[in-house]
């Protein structure tokens, strides 16, 4: 009996320890964050990641990478409810260029996963880039100690825990409750069970998730943003094309920067300051720490 | 010779049937793209009864005419060569009675007439207002039982077993095999169904009857077998029996799957013969062979009806001596089942909690076509469609309804209409589907978190798929439990926009009864006391923008 308990404790401790090791570390030569602008989603994604130190800073040779886009809805890229497929595919391609052992893309969707993976264009784009696409299998999720303030334990898909590198690739969009859904909330697609319960204390919950998953790199898709009717959208009248991608090793900085995509009047979600006070990153930075890149069309 | 061809053909049809059932699975594409319902379309019992009920043959059901024609020429080949339930019954019988068992006689028994009574009742019922076909048609029964009863537990065993093996030493072997199965045969989310255990039990019971008597279902109960038997009886197939070769060993009858009495000189029963070829193969003296003769149109009536005038000629055909009285009683029961069935629920109004699949029309229009085959339940990507019990009256038993506690109707999806063989669920374009109303969502204010507990929650609004959203949030000042005034956004449903897809009810985080529930209010094509259609006819604010 003692043996079993010991094994269980070890099983729980290992992924947590590994996650601590891969927590983002700021390279002194790179800016805190990069904002790339231009007509090609692939080119600006590449430019933004290159500007914050290049993919090799985050992905070492032989690493197992998991990329978490938003594939939650049965919507097309034009409707801006899911992450832009070219942005996702570019991240995958760059990981493979850095000789990652494997790049896995998956999400626990809200609509039928088959329709979401197909209509979002993400499954096809990722496969074409050489990545692996999998559906989120509910029964593979394991209850884990999240050690959060409100989320003590929850069922998590092991792919996100076992990976050496986690890259968060959300889309900057409107959300009825969070006001804006930008980064940390994207991790709701990595957990199983009755996720809708989290909405009762959404901000604290997503900060707990952000603290648990600790991505090495956050790439926020601002190619098209949803200004209303989020998170699912549907009407093209609510979509604005910004042709922007934000990349940062600091998930809080990336998320705080993405708020500004929604205009000067955008209200910063409460989760950003909560995350900052818990030491997950910074929401303020000098202008010198931000790199702006213009990538003109060819 | 015939037997040697028949066995691979029969297994081939069983595998094809199972393959098409597995392929009755959305891929995420708008169109399913394969003819998964073809077995139902060549089923003449489905064709005949829905034609009698509605006066029209839907879709490709006319193909079942080919089955009738072929049965006229070749006898009950469908039962012996094609029908997957027949094959399964036969496999069960083989397991139950190994060949080494002592030989006993297996000749025709009077109970084999029951199936004609069943057929009489089903046909009379379809004329008189009750479509029973789906309860007893072998293909409907098998698809429904496998989908609802067997697939969910099998899938759980597969997924659970693979998860167990994955972490063990066999993981490197089992995981690729599991991944292949998962990616090619399973939906991302394991389905579950209401009445699952009952459906599994019914099929197990029917197969177990093969322990009692070989192919009991096919010989004694199957109304499709009865229909094809009646056709075979007047058709052209003959068993040529050589009296000089026969030693009277009765091996042919022992091996006969249909109990068609091939050993009785001149007493072979074409209506019971599955053309399995066991008799010709088993005759050591090669005294039996199949051939063709002139159609026996004179045998169109059961022989005992004619016997009084022409006993000598008709006695030789045999097989359908059901008795006038019995047949009339069966027809009477079938005929009265319509009016009795329609007496409840009163005025044909099912309970408002009963949500029919999209575009199903009025309740009776739906019941006149639905054969309860379960194809829609198999294909539904949201696992929303389930067989119902008796809540909507006896005529509606096992017909599909949306159950939002288990699943929901995927907004852009049109798959149920694509697989329905009879048009009970019409084939809708995506745009039509998105405008087809199956019900209306109501917020249960005493349960809803923002209303009852001043707790923020927007899950229903978040998931509402229409554009603009049918569920909107209205800012309200409420008093929290600490007495402090605070602002909470509360969901409200616009009846002009809601289509009743039920994803709000399905995703509602309130445990037990969801705090937002869909009722069959104002569904497209339905009138009655819950009609909202006049109000819904008002122009919508904005049109959904659709991107191809």
How would you describe this protein?
Chain A is of the alpha/beta class. Chain A has nine helices and twelve strands. In chain A, the strands form two sheets. In chain A, strands 1, 2, 3, 4, 7, 8, 9, 10, 11 and 12 form a ten-stranded mixed β-sheet that branches. Chain A is globular, with a radius of gyration of 18 Å. In chain A, 59% of the residues are buried. The N terminus of chain A is likely disordered. By secondary structure, chain B is mainly alpha-helical. Chain B is 44% helix and 8% strand. Chain B has a two-stranded antiparallel sheet with strand order 1-2. In chain B, helix 4 crosses helix 13 and helix 7 crosses helix 13. The C terminus of chain B is likely disordered. The chains are: A alpha/beta (298), B mainly alpha (548). Chains A and B meet through helix 4 of A and helix 9 and helix 24 of B.
What is the straight-line distance between the termini of chain A?
A: 66 Å
**Approximately what portion of the residues of chain B adopt beta-strand conformation?**
5-15%
> What is the count of DSSP helices of chain B, taking H or I runs of 4+ residues?
26
- Taking all Cα atoms into account, the compactness measure Rg of chain B is 28 Å
Fraction of helical residues of chain B:
40-55%
What is the topology?
The complex is a heterodimer of chains A (298) and B (548).
Chain A: H1 2-21, E1 33-37, H2 41-51, E2 64-69, H3 85-97, E3 102-105, H4 113-119, H5 122-129, E4 132-133, E5 142-145, E6 153-156, H6 158-162, E7 165-169, E8 171-175, E9 179-181, H7 202-213, E10 217-226, E11 239-248, H8 251-259, H9 270-277, E12 290-294
Parallel strand pairs in A: 1-12, 2-3, 2-7, 3-4, 7-10, 8-10
Antiparallel strand pairs in A: 1-11, 5-6, 8-9, 10-11
Chain B: H1 2-23, H2 38-41, H3 44-54, H4 64-74, H5 77-82, H6 84-96, H7 114-128, H8 133-136, H9 138-166, H10 171-185, H11 196-212, H12 216-221, H13 223-234, E1 237-241, H14 251-255, H15 278-282, E2 288-292, H16 303-306, H17 311-314, H18 324-343, H19 363-367, H20 375-379, E3 385-387, E4 400-402, H21 415-419, H22 430-435, E5 440-443, H23 449-452, H24 459-463, E6 471-479, E7 485-493, H25 503-507, E8 516-519, H26 533-536
Antiparallel strand pairs in B: 1-2, 3-4, 5-8, 6-7
Helix pairs in contact in B: 1-6, 3-4, 3-7, 4-13, 6-11, 7-13, 7-18, 9-10, 9-11
């Amino acid at each position: 009996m003692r043996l079993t308990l010991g094994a269980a404790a070890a099983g729980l401790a290992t992924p947590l320890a590994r996650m601590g090791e891969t927590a983002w570390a700021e390279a002194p030569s790179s800016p805190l964050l990069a904002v790339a602008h231009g007509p090609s989603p692939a080119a600006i994604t590449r430019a933004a990641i290159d500007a914050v130190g290049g993919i090799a800073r985050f992905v070492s040779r032989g690493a197992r990478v998991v990329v978490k886009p938003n594939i939650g809805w049965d919507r097309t890229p034009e409707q801006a409810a899911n992450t832009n497929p070219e942005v996702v595919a570019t991240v995958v391609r760059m990981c493979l260029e850095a000789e990652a052992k494997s790049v896995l893309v998956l999400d626990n969707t809200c609509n039928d996963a088959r329709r979401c993976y197909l209509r979002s264009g993400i499954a096809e784009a990722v496969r074409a880039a050489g990545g692996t696409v999998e559906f989120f299998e509910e029964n593979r999720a394991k209850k884990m100690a999240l050690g959060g303030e409100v989320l003590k334990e929850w069922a998590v898909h092991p792919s996100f825990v076992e990976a050496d590198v986690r890259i968060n690739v959300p889309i900057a969009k409107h959300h009825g409750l969070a006001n804006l859904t930008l980064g940390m909330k994207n991790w709701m697609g990595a957990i199983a069970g009755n996720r809708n319960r989290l909405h009762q204390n959404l901000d604290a919950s997503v900060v707990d998730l952000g603290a648990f998953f600790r991505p090495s790199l956050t790439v926020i898709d601002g190619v098209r943003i949803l200004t209303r009717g989020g998170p699912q959208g549907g009407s093209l009248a609510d979509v604005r094309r910004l042709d922007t991608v934000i990349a940062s090793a600091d998930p809080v900085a990336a998320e705080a920067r993405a708020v500004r995509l929604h205009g000067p009047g955008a209200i910063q979600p409460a989760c950003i300051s909560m995350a900052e006070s818990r030491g997950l990153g910074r929401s303020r930075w000098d202008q010198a720490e931000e790199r702006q890149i213009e990538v003109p069309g060819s | 010779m015939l037997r040697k061809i028949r066995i691979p053909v029969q297994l081939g049809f069983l595998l094809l049937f199972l393959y098409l059932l597995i392929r009755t699975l959305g891929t995420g594409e708008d169109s399913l793209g394969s003819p998964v319902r073809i077995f139902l379309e060549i089923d003449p019992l489905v064709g005949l009864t829905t034609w009698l009920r509605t006066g029209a043959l839907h879709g490709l059901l006319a193909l079942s005419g080919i089955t009738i024609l072929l049965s006229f020429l070749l006898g009950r080949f469908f039962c012996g060569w094609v029908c997957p339930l027949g094959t399964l019954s036969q496999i069960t019988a083989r397991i139950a009675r190994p060949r080494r068992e002592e030989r006993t006689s297996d000749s025709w028994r009077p109970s084999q007439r029951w199936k004609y009574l069943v057929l009489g009742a089903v046909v009379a019922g379809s004329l008189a207002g009750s479509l029973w076909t789906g309860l007893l048609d072998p293909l409907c029964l098998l698809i429904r039982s496998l989908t609802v009863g067997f697939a969910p537990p099998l899938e759980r065993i597969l997924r659970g077993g693979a998860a167990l093996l994955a972490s063990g030493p066999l993981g490197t072997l089992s995981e690729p095999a599991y991944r292949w199965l998962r990616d090619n045969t399973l939906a991302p989310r394991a389905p579950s169904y209401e009445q699952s255990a009952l459906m599994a039990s019914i099929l197990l019971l029917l197969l177990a009857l093969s322990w009692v008597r070989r192919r009991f279902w096919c010989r004694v109960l199957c109304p499709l077998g009865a229909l094809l038997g009646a056709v075979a009886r007047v058709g052209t197939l003959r068993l040529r029996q050589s009296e000089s070769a026969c030693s009277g060993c009765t091996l042919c009858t022992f091996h006969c799957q249909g109990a068609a009495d091939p050993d009785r000189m001149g007493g072979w029963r074409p209506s019971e013969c599955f053309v399995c070829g066991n008799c010709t193969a088993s005759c050591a003296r090669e005294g039996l062979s199949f051939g063709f003769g002139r159609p026996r149109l004179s045998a169109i009536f059961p022989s005992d009806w004619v016997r009084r005038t022409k006993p000598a000629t008709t006695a030789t055909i045999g097989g359908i001596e059901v008795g006038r009285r019995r047949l009339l009683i069966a027809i009477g029961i079938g005929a009265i089942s319509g009016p009795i069935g329609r007496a409840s629920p009163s005025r044909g109004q099912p309970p408002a909690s009963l949500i029919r699949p999209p575009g199903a029309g009025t309740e009776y229009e739906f019941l006149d076509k639905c054969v309860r085959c379960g194809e829609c339940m198999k294909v539904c990507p949201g696992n929303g469609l389930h067989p119902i019990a008796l809540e909507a009256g006896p005529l509606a038993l096992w017909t599909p309804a949306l159950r939002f506690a288990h699943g929901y109707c995927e907004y852009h999806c049109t798959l149920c209409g694509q697989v329905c063989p009879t048009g009970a669920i019409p084939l809708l374009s995506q745009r039509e589907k998105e405008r087809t109303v199956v019900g209306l969502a109501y917020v249960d204010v005493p349960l809803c978190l923002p209303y009852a507990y001043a707790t923020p929650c927007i899950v229903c609004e978040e998931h509402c798929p229409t554009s603009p959203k049918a569920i909107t949030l209205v800012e309200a000042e409420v008093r929290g439990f600490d007495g402090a005034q605070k602002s909470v956004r509360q969901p409200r449903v616009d009846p002009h926009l809601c289509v009743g897809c039920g994803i709000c009810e399905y995703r509602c985080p309130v445990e037990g009864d969801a705090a937002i529930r869909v009722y069959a209010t104002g569904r497209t094509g339905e009138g009655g006391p819950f009609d909202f259609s006049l109000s819904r006819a008002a122009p919508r604010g904005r049109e959904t923008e659709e991107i191809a």
